[in-house]
């Protein structure tokens, strides 16, 4: 037990790195996903195709590969040549990747709204932007909570991929102790950290689903 307690300090430091990446990614990718969803539903075919291609690319290639490309290859791309440090590179990769997934969730939610509500808003003299902000989006949130919950929980687990950039996240901290002490106990403790984080998110989304279901009733 004393050994397990001694692990809590270094693993907690790794968990802070994990949680920071999770929080920043969520704050950036959800609004970006909503914007991409609206562009995906644009009346302009070229814009729809462009956003559709972006979503296809982000969802069709591994997140780890995207991270490695942004960190190692992007500086050598002609004209662009942007160089990121390891942590910003991870944030950019995670944000761009998860925005694509959130965009599809938002798109499905928006398209689930009955067309009659758009027509009713038009009769009331509301613009498209006002219709989306006041009528459509408030109804979309309750409908997309289950898939949004799944993606958010997946995001917590995917943060472990940043070990490829040598960032000292929760998993890397655990692996370092395993290599030092020749015991798998740190992995078990790290798993408990992940389980607690996902449990808190699960409870949070369950509360939101019950709350919105109560309002719908």
Secondary structure class reads: mainly alpha
Q: How would you describe the shape?
A: flat
Average per-residue pLDDT, rounded, comes to 91
User: In what range is the share of β-strand residues?
Assistant: under 5%
Describe this structure in words.
Helix content is 81%, strand content 0%. It has 217 residues and is mainly alpha-helical. Helix 1 (2-40) runs antiparallel to helix 2, helix 2 crosses helix 4 (86-111) and helix 5 (115-123) runs antiparallel to helix 6 (128-158). It is flat and about 70 Å long.
Quick structural gist:
Helix content is 81%, strand content 0%. It is mostly helical and 217 residues long.
Q: What's the layout of helices and strands?
A:
Layout: H1 2-40, H2 45-60, H3 63-73, H4 86-111, H5 115-123, H6 128-158, H7 170-181, H8 185-216
Helix pairs in contact: 1-2, 1-4, 1-7, 1-8, 2-4, 3-4, 4-6, 5-6, 6-8, 7-8
Structure characteristics:
single chain, 8 helices
